[in-house]
Input
Amino acid sequence: MVDALRVTSSLVFSELFATREASAREVWTTPFAPDDHYDLSWDTTLYTRTAPRERYFAAHFDDIEVARVLVLQTHTNRIEPAFRLPALPPSVTEVEWIEVARGHRRLGIGTAVIRSLEQTFAGEHLIAFGAVGAERFWDATGWQRFERDSAASSVGQRPLHLRVPAA
Output
């Protein structure tokens, strides 16, 4: 059994970069190799319209990759008004994907990764649309939760979680 405190205190959090394929000027590849320890498909091809605003991070423990994160800059005019959010700047940083590798889940790694993102983007508003089934995780981060207005709501829609930078 792995000691959760040892894992979270020993995580190494680093940024990775998408690479442009030499054969095609507009094709980018994510920095993640296929890995069956993850449920999401992280080894995808991107195009220049999206690649420059996407940032990738990985967390390692004892030289083993244990978590992956994709964040991107999102224009707030693209967020549904049904969330009734407070005033936001024109652009926010969105946690698009976060995943902890199977076998390393429920050790506090996801929370430690969120805390690292909060430090990395200390002066920025952070948002995340919590995946269905991940409500407890996102609620435990301390980020403010917003549901869509009841008139616009339907079953299975993801809540938005917001972290406002400290003043």
Notes: The CA atoms of residues 111 and 137 lie 8 Å apart. The chain is about 15% helix and 30% strand. The domain at 4-15+53-163 is CATH 3.40.630.30 (Aminopeptidase). The two ends are 41 Å apart (CA to CA).
